[in-house]
Design a protein that fits this description.
By secondary structure, this protein is mostly helical. It has a domain of about 210 residues: MetI-like (MetI-like fold, Orthogonal Bundle), CATH 1.10.3720. About 70% of the residues lie in helices and about 0% in strands. Helix 3 packs across helix 14, helix 4 crosses helix 11 and helix 11 runs antiparallel to helix 14. It is globular, with a radius of gyration of 28 Å.
């Protein structure tokens, strides 16, 4: 009785398609280069005006008038910053902008998060219609509301006060949408377990939902602060006294005279943008994480 030796057969793998892999690598490299080029161009678009304003603030007014586009001058001096700080109430403008932006952040985060929590977890008649109206506010231009808001705050006697600037920005549709997207991603089991244990809706909102919404809070707070700091048209109409104005409105008054002091104007502009630049440089990671975690594309 003979036994036949069984030899194992080797598995034959199809040859790799090197041409397809090379094309994918080439397309990926081309896309990365294109993306890097676009990012560089956008960075230059934003950085060149700031660099030009900073260099102009260090030059003499006579030199600026003779050659306004030059990036190099015979000498540089920080005297324009001292003159700008002493000749205009920049300190009061800083304080006003900081108070208004801080109040806007606090009330926007508090109210918009409550609205989003109610739209996600509470059942009431007309909830879909309310959410649709809020989303419709994203398509409504801010300029269309200026006249009704002005008449409303004039009737309430709030013109010339901080509340005339803070209250219109509290109901921010973008903030409601951000909180709604984030709260909707929180597991419903957490809320149901808390309700079974007897927790109230306020306790669920304050002790469960809001601690989990820190990325959304960071994104909304930073974007609201920047938007409120840069607001110009509405504060220009509402704030009439010079010392009660904000940084953008105050800077616009510096260029309204007959003889413009270019160096002092540019120095004031640089001083006005420094707080926003510091906020962005310190909190850029929180901005990116908040936007990414809330699902905004």
């Amino acid at each position: 009785m003979s036994t036949a030796a069984v030899t194992p057969t080797a598995t034959v793998h199809p040859p790799r398609r090197r041409g397809s892999a090379d094309r994918n690598d080439a397309s990926s490299t081309a896309f990365n280069r294109l993306a890097a080029t676009c990012v560089t161009l956008f960075a230059l678009i934003w950085l060149i005006p700031f660099a030009w304003a900073f260099i102009t603030s260090l030059r003499a007014n006579d030199d600026i008038a003779a050659n306004p586009t030059a990036f190099w001058s015979g000498g540089f001096s920080f005297a324009a910053y001292t003159s700008a700080w002493e000749s205009s109430p920049l300190g009061s403008w800083y304080v006003n902008s900081f108070i208004i932006s801080t109040l806007a952040v606090i009330f926007t985060v508090l109210i918009c998060s409550m609205v989003a929590f109610a739209l996600v977890h509470l059942d009431f008649r007309g909830k879909a219609a309310v959410f649709a109206v809020i989303l419709a506010g994203l398509m409504l231009p801010t300029e269309a509301l200026i006249l009704p808001q002005f008449m409303e705050f004039r009737a309430l006697g709030l013109l010339g006060t901080y509340w005339a600037i803070v209250l219109p920005g509290v109901a921010l549709p973008v903030a409601v949408f951000v909180f709604h997207s984030f709260i909707k991603g929180i597991p419903v089991a957490l809320v149901e377990a808390a309700r079974i244990d007897g927790a109230s809706w306020w306790r669920i909102y304050s002790q469960i939902v809001m601690p989990l919404c820190r990325p959304a809070i960071s994104a909304v707070a930073i974007l609201t602060f920047i938007t409120s700091w840069n607001a110009f048209l509405w504060p220009l109409l509402v704030l009439t006294q010079t010392k009660s104005q904000t940084i953008p409105v105050g800077l616009s008054s510096l260029v309204g005279g007959a003889a413009i002091q270019y160096a002092e104007t540019m120095a004031s502009a640089v001083l006005g943008i420094l707080p926003l630049l510091a906020v962005f440089l310190l909190l850029q990671r929180q901005i990116a994480q908040g936007v990414a975690n809330t699902g905004i594309k």
